[in-house]
Amino acid sequence: MDTAPTDLSRVRQPIAAANGLPNAHYIDPALYGEERQAVLFDNWSGLAVASDVPDIGDAVPVTFLDMPLLVVRDRNNTVRVFHNICRHRGMILVDAPRKIEGAIRCPYHSWCYSTEGRLVSTPHVGGPGHNTHEGINRALLGLIEVRSHIWMDVIWINVSGTALPFEQANAGLLERWAEFDKPLYHGGADSRFELTVNCNWKLAVENYCESYHLPWIHPGLNSYSRLEDHYHIENKGYFSGQGTLVYRQLKDEADSAFPDFDGLSDKWDTAAEYISVYPNVLLGAHRDHTFAIILVPQGPEKTVENIHVYYAAQETDAGLRTRNTALWKAVFMEDVFVVEGMQRGRHAPAFDGGRFSPVMDGPTHMFHDWVASQMQRHRTTSLAAE
After folding, report:
1. Which residues 6+ apart lie within 8 Å of 156 measured at CB?
2. ∠ CA 310-312-313 to the nearest 5 degrees?
3. Is 30 helix (H, G, I), strand (E, B) or coil?
4. pLDDT digits (tens, 9 = 90+) for 116-160
5. Cα distance between residue 369 and residue 312, in whole Å
6. pTM of the predicted model over 0.85
7. 175 and 169 in contact (C-beta within 8 Å)?
């Protein structure tokens, strides 16, 4: 590490006395590298969505924190995540989304892998016409698989392999949203979009999980779902966010709305919830649609937000879907100048991480405290290993 470890003791104080994370955690490449391992690789991070590979044989290359990965739906209809490299010379296997009709073939020396990751062919590896060699054990040279799990259509990965099983690590959230453990139908091309934002990924999380900013940043939403209609969602060490007691369904000229999810409790007739699932996934749940935002860091000061919208039925009105996507895009765009402004503010040497409103900033402070806890755990483990 090129810089001295940051002092996180003030971050971990009770909210009334706490400061936010130090500036370096938003602008310093060395701290970004440390967080890459401690926060994003050691936990269940969002990578993509299963709807990116809807059919058997679909393969999509994804770069996550400079790491080349490959998402594949295998012959058994299981979504898998592999390192997108050949075990021979480290060549990238798939450089654009495509259908794997037979095997995943390396374009360099034609080593071939099944969609389950097995090395199935090594042409001429023992010399011309000799496709085997005693020194090449195919059983040990399959694709390197990354531990993965699918929930709410999000593909969650644990790169280090050290996190608790997903269902155990996220038990509180799975219980809270058990009513949404049912088929979710991606709206398709009109229900996905991407925003590139000039800020550290953590600022997007911090902004999303609190409602304090609504009156000034989202006046349209606040006109009917007011600040006083919102409540905090806090599960220390796992997730935080906000809910509203007032959700207004989108309707067309004929007063028709999207169909509701089956079996929801009465709470969801008027409520909606928006949760930041640590570290990098932002989820929204409503009676008639959900969405997922996967934050993909592009360095300390740039983030790509991949947004996907889901419905209770496979067939929904295309015009209404387009309007719904446009509404959410407008809302998320309203946040851009805020997170980019806070990012520029992190270059002010005198800024001490800021303070929190003890009443309004609980979800955001909880995220800061969690990041700090992951960094302290990682530092302690690293020191013990030296």
Report:
1. 44, 45, 46, 47, 148, 149, 150, 166, 281
2. 105
3. helix
4. 999 999 999 999 999 999 999 999 999 999 999 999 999 999 999
5. 35
6. yes
7. no
